[in-house]
Amino acid sequence: MGTKYVDIDTPASSIFSSFGPSLDENRPLLSRSTVTSYTTTDDHEETVIDELNPNASPFSGIFNLLNTILGTGMLAMPAAVATVGLFPGIIFTLISGIASGTGLYFLSESADRVEGRRASFFAVSQLTYPGAAVWFDTAIAIKCFGVAVSYLIIIGDIMPQVVISFDSSVPKDSILMDRRLWITAVMFGLLIPLSFKRTLDSFRHISALAILAVVYLCAIVIYYYFFASDFPKPPPEEIEWVHLTNGILGKLPVFIFGFTCHQNLFSVHNEVKNNDRRSMIRIILSSIITAGVFYELIAILGYLSFGKNARGNIILEYPVSWFVAGGRLAIVICVLFGYPLQIHPCRGSVDKILLRINGDKENKNSPFPDPPSTVKHVAMTTALLIGTYTLAITVSQLDLVLAFVGSTGSTAVSFILPGLFYFKLNENQPWTFGKTTSLILAIFGFTVMTVCLSYNIFILVSH
């Protein structure tokens, strides 16, 4: 394997949402964190944190977790609230935030059991359930694949609206108004070449734009609810305080999806200067509470602005204007650069799954196996590109995709694995509140996954 060592001192950040998982769970995320060296073997990198001088600040940890949490889930929040009613929507958002924060705490406590600053899902699974690594990779692959699909759907939904903002005379039957055109154009024009890259370091700097997009969306929601006098509000009968039906089973995963950032917790734990329990709790609480405020704001005001007719992508609901067009473009740009950041870890997880299926004894238990051959790399990337493109062209409901991703990958990463890890590491200890809660969290995760996934499959098949 080709190995090289370099000294670096650079900021690195996750992206919008999602943007989902970062490039690798051991990869440096935090601004100005000192990394003395890293070993790279094309796809896989092993980051070695200077254990004597990790100097990432708590604020950097908060920023990067927050940057991971705030993503495509917020666009579907008002529609999720419309399904259950205003009061249950507020409660479900609160419960999802608390449960996700609890999962982050259990992962942080589990990271303390790993020697040095080299905590990762693989390292913890080796201490708890060595055979569970394949399930973790499966969960990450599902989540990243689903988020990538949601990005393409967002591009297809928003770009026709952007066109109208620049030229309102474009007829509705114009090819420029076809979502499939824009998905195809960005796929072949930009995303395919970017997705085949083995390293994606240059994309980390786009994360500042991601936060701006979140703030911009909040500004749009606030303006049209409080200050746009010509913006029609829904009649009172369209605003329901409680509307509990079996549809809640389809929307609950959307709330869960919104708070998923657990794939980056170990990187934060490894790199922050002071990673003791109190410091990590502050980082986790600050991230979850801040994200919760954003989500509640968008969910409540978005629902009050459109009532039970709120669609799965709130940015599409607002009238054509330069102000709204700017917010839509900001989201599209973030999504464009977020897509390769989902394909990269998804491909890495698929590679590890294939290694186990093929029985590669040398690599399947290694946290940093040999990189795939060029042929395998191209084959996996091509399969992922075709799969995400086909689904995005076929499925136009963003909230449906988020419901499936939330009930599978997000539930496993946020609830099931953190609960099981903490419980296993403390199985010989007396039953404490933490140990009991970890078991409850894991059971809750399994229950949500089973019930909500079954319901979503039933609805999909029946329609």
Automatic annotation (TrEMBL):
Pfam families: Aa_trans (PF01490). Keywords: Amino-acid transport, Membrane, Transmembrane, Transmembrane helix, Transport, Vacuole. The keyword Chaperone does not apply. GO terms for cellular component: fungal-type vacuole membrane. The chain crosses the membrane at residues 62-80, 86-107, 127-159, 179-196, 208-228, 248-268, 280-306, 318-339, 401-425, 437-461. It is a multi-pass membrane protein. Residues 55-453 form the Amino acid transporter transmembrane domain. One of its GO terms (molecular function) is L-serine transmembrane transporter activity. The keyword Protein biosynthesis does not apply. It is found in: Vacuole membrane. Its main location: membrane. Belongs to the amino acid/polyamine transporter 2 family. This is Transmembrane amino acid transporter protein-domain-containing protein. It comes from Phascolomyces articulosus.
